[in-house]
Amino acid sequence: MAAVRFDLGFQTILDTNVTVPERLYSFLRDAPHLQAIVHVSTFYSNCDRLHIEECVYDDIRFGGWENIRQIINPLTESERAKLMPAIISPLPNNYVFSKKCAEVMIQQKFGDLPVGIFRPPIVTPSYAEPVPGWVDCIQGVTGLSIPTLKERLLWYYGDPTACPALTPVDYCIAGMITAACDIKARHEQNRVRESFDRHASTPPVYNFYFDQNLHSWQQFVALVGAELPTVMGRKLCNIRTRITRWKILSRITFWWMFFVAYLGDMVLSIFGKPKCNVSLVSGLRTLADAVEHFRCHTWTARNDNVKRMHTLLSKADKSLLEFDVDHMDWKEYFKHYAKGLSIELERRELRRRQKKKLDC
Q1: CA atoms within 13 A on the CB side of 245
Q2: Of the candidates 291, 56, 327, 332, which has an alpha carbon nearest to the alpha carbon of residue 164?
Q3: Residue 102 pLDDT > 90, yes or no?
Q4: If you average pLDDT over each of 76-90, 126-140, 156-170, 180-194, which comes out highest?
Q5: Euclidean distance between CA atoms 161 and 214, whole angstroms
Q6: Is residue 116's pLDDT more than 90?
Q7: pLDDT per residue over 308-336, tens digit each?
Q8: Bridge partners (DSSP) listed for residue 116
Q9: Does residue 283 carry a pLDDT above 90?
Q10: How far separated are the first and last CA of the chain, in Å rounded?
Q11: Closest C-alpha among 164, 135, 167, 168 to residue 149
Q12: Parallel, antiparallel, or unpaired for β 122-124 and 166-168?
């Protein structure tokens, strides 16, 4: 239901990530059998803070979300684009800003519903379900891993010692399912408190963040490169792909990739084939720029609600809904990470060829 792209227009992403959930939850207010709503936000909805608590931060500038909506509605798209940096500051992009607005909107308007806010971090290919390494979305960290798998020279700007918060998609889904049960139980407790004229708690927030087994960005690159098929590829991985504090070095490697892409497209045009290399590199550059802020910082967080709901699971439920990232075997995980991503790239290439045949 949400837009996860960072390059959408300001009005579009606010409509999708804030106005649409607002309409849905207004509609659900009259649902007679509603038990729980898990609103999926993002761990980085308050990334202007280096430590994030399990609470909603209602510190939106310009008088709050409702006031911002009234300000931008009569403006043109170009006027909104010019005003956007001032509105979303100090957050890095309109995506995380829209997620923050949605959290505030839920707390202000729908605290009476059985709703909780679930904040997943960077979601990566699966650990076990449906199969190890399964992925169907190449964005964020997954998309930036492609040059490593293709053994291309590309250095990203960032802090190589910064530690990203990563979680496999199946662990994230297991956490969401468990959160739904916890939200239902909390809502029933709130109804009991209200019947005794006691103050009901606000919608629970779940920071799906685990800090006992973190890896730095450069370690992440090394773990992905360790599963390359050739010995030479594995040995040269840390030279070809790096996280560097020198932005000029990152720009040089991107310039090199664009140069090679232009040459490749020239050859394709000579043989009458459609050009695609420059557009691929442009997409990679856009993605790298969009997540640059998250390569430069390390965040800490409270995750008491997540720890609590894990302790409430029975042994049988834990075997079905495992989501404790702290106890994952990351070396085993990355054996399947590269393979799963390579399979997905092959699938996309096959679909592209089939579509080209149909168009012809």
Answers
A1: 5
A2: 291
A3: yes
A4: 156-170
A5: 11
A6: yes
A7: 888 888 888 888 888 888 888 888 888 88
A8: 38
A9: no
A10: 34
A11: 135
A12: parallel
Question: 245-261 burial by CB neighbour count: b if 16+ within 10 A, else e?
Answer: eeeeebeebbeebeeeb
Identity of the amino acid at 350: L
Question: Which tokens sit at 244?
Answer: 């560097």
Question: What is the pLDDT confidence band of residue 201, given thresholds at 50, 70 and 90?
Answer: low
pTM of the entire predicted model? 0.86
Residues near 305 by beta carbon (within 8 Å), at least 6 away in sequence: 54, 182, 204, 205, 206, 207
- The answer to whether the CB of 107 falls within 8 A of the CB of 203 is yes
| Tokens of residue 100, six digits | 């923050």
Pick the closest to residue 92 from 143, 48, 40, 61 (CA basis): 48
Distance CA 279, CA 260 (A): 12
Per the listing, tokens 């030479």 go with 232
How far, in Å, are 186, 262, 323, 349, 352 from residue 356 at the CA level?
A: 53, 21, 41, 11, 6
Fill in the DSSP letter of residue 325: G
Strand partners for 167: 123
Tokens 């609600």 found at: 305
Buried b (16+ CB within 10 A) or exposed e, 54-77: bbbbeebeeeebeebeeebeeeee
What is the CA angle 162-217-39, rounded to 5?
A: 80
- Which tokens belong to 219? 């370690």
Amino acid occupying residue 203: P
Nearest CA among 340, 358, 322 for reference residue 132: 340
pLDDT digits (tens, 9 = 90+) for 246-263: 889 989 988 988 898 888
| Four-residue CA torsion sign, 292, 298, 300, 303 | positive
Record the tokens describing residue 185, joined without a space: 């139980």
Asked if residue 220 has pLDDT above 60, the reply is yes
CA of residue 120 relative to chain centroid, distance: 7
